[in-house]
Design goal:
Strand order of the largest sheet: 2-4-5-7-6
Largest sheet: 5 strands, mixed, barrel
Strand content: 25-35%
Distance between the termini: 60 Å
Order of helices and strands: HEHEEEEEEH
CATH architecture of the largest domain: Beta Barrel
Helix content: 25-40%
Number of domains: 2
Number of strands: 7
Oligomer: single chain
Number of helices: 3
Length: 155
């Protein structure tokens, strides 16, 4: 093999190695920053156990909201068709947050409770992932779900 050909081969291999490293780092960064959405029953089945941070979506159980008198700590229960999950949040809640309302909370599990770092309350189910819409429809069969509920992303 002559020196020019050897040099060209080394350059091509270095470019290939650098590209592989760049793609690997990009995939790794994207995976770490993704927030997957789960319902309480999916969390209880262990489907969220591989994710350090994820979103919990469902309805706020009627009568479950308990506010601390001396801090901004709030505890409530998020329900779906087959499960419920206690949630703890410290901070200011959205104005639309109330009983029997759709909610999506971002956070992590702490033993059997979900510790939220962000809570999003929605005034209707217009923009909702199909999986969450179906799970909530089963949980609240008496409540009508909009026909266009699966035409968008969650907030």
């Amino acid at each position: 093999m002559n020196p020019t050909r050897k040099r060209r081969l080394i350059v091509v291999l270095l470019i290939f190695a650098a590209s592989a490293v760049a793609v690997s780092l990009g995939v790794f960064a994207l995976q770490r920053n993704m927030n997957y959405l789960f319902t309480p029953s999916q969390v209880q089945r262990g489907e969220a156990s591989n994710y350090p941070t994820f979103r919990l979506g469902g309805m706020v159980k009627s009568g479950s909201i308990q506010r601390s008198n001396d801090s901004l700590k709030v505890t409530f229960t998020v329900v779906d068709a087959d499960g419920n999950m206690p949630v703890e949040y410290t901070g200011i809640l959205p104005d639309l947050f109330r009983d029997d309302q759709s909610v999506i909370a971002t956070g992590h599990m702490d033993h059997a409770r979900f510790v939220a770092t962000e809570v999003l309350a929605k005034h209707d189910e217009t923009y909702m992932p199909k999986e969450l819409k179906d799970a909530m429809a089963k949980a609240h069969q008496g409540r009508a779900m909009p026909a266009n509920a699966d035409q968008g992303e969650s907030p």
